[in-house]
Write a structure and sequence with these properties.
315 residues, alpha+beta, 60s Ribosomal Protein L30, Chain: A, Phosphoribosyl-aminoimidazole Synthetase, Chain A, domain 2, 2 domains, 7-stranded mixed sheet, 6-stranded mixed sheet, 13 strands, 30% helix, globular, binds adenosine-5'-diphosphate, binds magnesium ion
């Protein structure tokens, strides 16, 4: 049986998940990162893997950009929990043709972004493989009252995002199609930035939070499934930069669809009661209701979404 025959990546994770034995685990499988109590602290741990020709390509990423993306995608998961990153471990599987200068460049990117947040690289693993695979484990700390999971959304909450979406997917498509121009859009794909600058301000007020790694529709569905709620997304409220819309148009596509179904924007999506919304940076894109399903409202018409974001075994 293939992984896609059971419903893809998320169903596989469900299938292999077993109950935890240790009562110190506060958040286990099923969120952006795990949280466990350690003495008087709450530790937060995540890992994300980048595969060559899937998450990056040496044809259009500089080595430094590969390092940037590897670090930022992990920092983003710590941000999504309301945590502060502290330590990183890096695992590399490298093909024979990778030279020392390439590795120096990748480490320039890794150190640039880890230094930005005071993260120390404290270990890792190096081995060989037919394609380049980079896996980062990030360990951080989170204040108990700031732990923000996917499961706290409540009917009546509004859904907000911290910034424009869709540019990373537009950038990827421009690269794959060999299109010139749109340098700023392409940079959103090759040099993403997590939102640790605003995450701690949102955590503690937001009822649920997640980073946008698989597209807005998929992230909202995750929040709804974990919280036992439904959601309405207002298509015309989704923030998409004009350059992203232009880039999508040049490819014969719709930039708002990139925001909904693309990925790797690394903005945060969160839910919050309307009265507390002005304490949190972002724009409102929808609301949570009692029930189930994720609906999209477009020009007064509501449709229940059946297609969601990126799934590695369901593409
Ligand atoms: P994100 O997109 O935020 O990185 P993922 O979709 O990769 O999150 O993972 C969702 C959840 O599933 C996380 O809690 C992650 O730790 C867990 N997970 C992913 N793959 C596995 C696996 N092979 N075994 C156990 N847990 C996994
Ligand atoms: Mg995440």
């Amino acid at each position: 049986m293939r992984i896609r025959d059971i419903g893809g990546e998320f169903k596989l994770i469900e299938r292999v998940t077993r109950a935890v034995k240790n009562k110190n685990v506060i958040v286990g499988i099923g969120d952006d990162a795990a949280v466990f109590e350690f003495g008087n602290n709450n530790m937060v741990v995540t890992m994300d893997t980048l595969c060559e020709e899937d998450h990056f390509s040496r044809r259009y990423f500089t080595p430094k950009q590969i390092g940037i993306k590897a670090m930022e995608s992990n920092l983003s998961d710590i941000a999504a929990m309301g945590g502060r990153p502290l330590y990183a471990l890096l695992s590399f599987a490298l093909p024979q043709d990778v030279d020392v200068e390439t590795m120096d460049g990748i480490y320039d990117g890794l150190y640039e972004r880890s230094n930005r947040y005071g993260v120390d690289i404290i270990g890792g693993d190096t081995t060989h493989s037919s394609a380049m695979v980079i896996s980062v484990t990030l360990i951080g700390q989170v204040d108990k009252e700031k732990i923000t999971t996917r499961s706290g959304a409540r009917p009546g909450d509004i859904i907000r995002v911290t910034g424009p979406l869709g540019a990373s997917t537009a950038g990827l498509k421009l690269f794959v199609d060999n299109r010139p121009g749109f340098a700023a859009v392409k940079l959103k794909h090759t040099e993403p930035s997590c939102r640790l600058d605003v995450s701690e301000a949102i955590a503690g007020t937001a009822t649920a939070m997640e980073d946008v790694s698989d597209g807005l529709a998929s992230e909202v569905r995750n929040i709804c499934q974990s919280s036992g709620t439904g959601a309405m997304i207002y298509r015309d409220k989704i923030p998409v930069e004009p350059e992203t819309i232009e880039a999508a148009k040049s490819l014969g596509e719709d930039g708002v669809n990139y925001a909904l179904f693309g990925g790797e924007d690394f903005e945060l999506v969160y839910t919050v009661p309307p009265v507390s919304a002005d304490r949190c940076p972002g724009v409102t894109v929808g609301e949570i209701f009692s029930g189930s399903g994720v609906y999209l409202e477009d020009k007064g018409e509501r449709t229940r979404l059946s297609r969601f974001g990126w799934d590695h075994f369901n593409a």
